[in-house]
Amino acid sequence: MQNRISNTGLSVAYEPENCAPVADIVFIHGFDGHPYKSWASARAPHTATSPATAQPKASGDGSGKSSPVFWPVDLLPKECPDSRILMYGYETAIANVMAGATNDIVFSYSKDLLSVLGRERILNRPLIFVAHGLGGLIVKAMLASSATSTAIEHNNVIDSTAAVIFLGTPHRGSPNRTAPSELVQSTVGTYLEQAQEAFSRLWQKHDFRVKTFQGMSNKAAPASSSMIGDRRERAETINANHMEMCRFTGVDDPNYHRVAGELRSIYLSIARSVDLSGHIQRSGSMLSDASLVQRHGANEDELSEAEKACLQSLWFPNMNAHSQNLKNPAEQTCLWLFKHKAYEDWFNGRNRDKNFGLLWLKGKPGVGKSTLMKEAFRRSVLGQAKSDYCTAAFFFDAGGVELEHSPVGLFRSLLYQLLPGQREHLQNLAKLLDKTKLDRGDDAAESLLSDEAELKFLFESVFAQASAKRTLIFIDALDECDLESIRSQAYFWKKMTESAYTQGVDLNVCLSSRHYPSISIRGCPEIVIEHHNSHDIAAYVEQRLKPLDIAIEKKLLQDTVLRKSAGVFLWVVLIVDIMLMDWDQGKNLQYLLKQLDVVPEELETLFSDIFRSLSAEERQLTVRFFQWAILAVRPLRLHEWHHILAFIRQPTPSSLREWRGSDYFTDNDSQLERQIRAVSRGLVEVRPRVGEPKDRGFETISVCASAGSLDDEYGDTRVVQVIHESVRDFFLKSNGFSILDPSVGSHPIGDGHRSIMATCLDYINIAELDTLIQAR
């Protein structure tokens, strides 16, 4: 194989034999690298994996000796079978770098790369770039040149770029000047910052996918240097130094799993969305991709310039950034949803006289709601060609720009996706925008598309009369919508689906959210995800722990992870990554088991974000709430929380009578559950008692409003507990209390117990208890 790879220029390393490639994957090596040697690794002694290509022994030399693992050919075709794999080579000389010619080198090789891509590739075939070190700078410069080129074959490169994967690329300057690649950085100087700013603009405009991998030990580019620094960035660490981070020993290499998993995800997204003509379909990209028009069975040429301009006005950058950044589900996961009766009924339009076409997926933070919604939307898009319906989706992102978490962004995105299939409404909107521009100017037309009420009216008009096509809409993470709009959005979709049903319009909407905020919609079926995802978690853990070669240890780790997961998929993903990294570093089983009690940094960030919107008054109440929920010596039963919630508020009621007459009195357990969910922001739940003997003498009298049912499933003796042990560890082993309220002292656990004691003393002082004791 090495003989087939030219030292310079573009070489085809692999092509599918029986079909046209769906994508070109282009590898660009780093400083002082080689298009073969940079990606080839000595085979691990225990690895017995045969090449995964359509060309057996492609990288061998026929000598019978153990050949290096050239993973772009020996391994990657199994992940991306219908892709063409190309290697780009160039020469760098240290003398040129020392002479200060690095900027010219990058520009020169980027021009060469653009020229050869223009000659050697088919227009519109999706491109995936995998770049190591300096190769990443060449790719960024090449894309910048492509974006400004007037030559069709050159400009088409940026239009066809689906993804860029950076491996240890220095995106910004570094204080360390010792390694060769750092010499490159020192000479480039401000060029790095300028190149990065230009690349970020291209990323935002063309909406391709970007992934950053950083090396660990002996890094030529430290973490701050190899980070792009963009909000959309998803950086991941590879357990290898700068030179070895792009070489893998086999399919069991954990580092290969990380990089190949990303490539497989990108490849599958392309393979699922490439039409017969080979055009890449990025639903969030500019209209020139033509994907939306084709998706609705129309021809882009049929659209008038006014209609195209109308759709362009609805589009906004990052429209699909959040959904694109979501990883595809692991193999053999998510299947349960499509067999669930409530989902099948919704998807197939059954029982619309009862649910009016509305379905709600709910779950704890981190259970995989967005992954399920992305997979459900993907399947519905694939089914459009065979069925007479149209589909659209929006994924709220609280961490995104305003349009990514507002109703305005939601309606603009849905209209952008649906109007190509509703030509009459598209024409009406185009005329309205033209008239508005003519009468009041461009700013007025732009304001019209920034007005929630106007957009809502436009959306309602699309479904005001019977349509030939049924419509499926997926709205993910409703809880990440603007706080003041969440409830009104839920009620809007209830009203919208009921109105459509009355008008004979087949509109079906699937929502997803966390349990908090607690919103109930009468007649809307709900699917609680954590009640159904245990098999998915088991399948994922089994797949990820395959590299562990000791069966007993692997089984113990699998069982322990499953037992502790409580349906929180995100915790499982993060903790398995940590365990595999520790395993690679030679840690023993005892150490790995201890890591299951560590709260991953990403979860700490998630929990912190959940509390971000609390007011100062709410923070004080929430701190006291978690002091009781976390520090109590036993799980507290639901009926006890009627009193706890009453007496942790300020000012404390002086009597039960005063409490019963207050705004905070809880009439029943259902109301209490909603309060618990609200105060805890969904991190505490009410659950049945499990494995606990019933105490016959247990609190035979209750002074609260409830009757004291001993029903384990629905009664008030159910317990109130955190949704997952990582929440408890967030408060006990991390800075959970001080993150929740910075005014908490340096001894939050001791302060918490004192707070509980003070509440107990306040409770003892109420007058009714004196009467009760005297009666006994």
From TrEMBL:
<dbReference type="Pfam" id="PF24883">
    <property type="entry name" value="NPHP3_N"/>
</dbReference>
<dbReference type="InterPro" id="IPR027417">
    <property type="entry name" value="P-loop_NTPase"/>
</dbReference>
<feature type="domain" description="Nephrocystin 3-like N-terminal">
    <location>
        <begin position="332"/>
        <end position="514"/>
    </location>
</feature>
<protein>
    <recommendedName>
        <fullName>Nephrocystin 3-like N-terminal domain-containing protein</fullName>
    </recommendedName>
</protein>
<dbReference type="InterPro" id="IPR056884">
    <property type="entry name" value="NPHP3-like_N"/>
</dbReference>
<keyword id="KW-0677">Repeat</keyword>
<dbReference type="InterPro" id="IPR029058">
    <property type="entry name" value="AB_hydrolase_fold"/>
</dbReference>
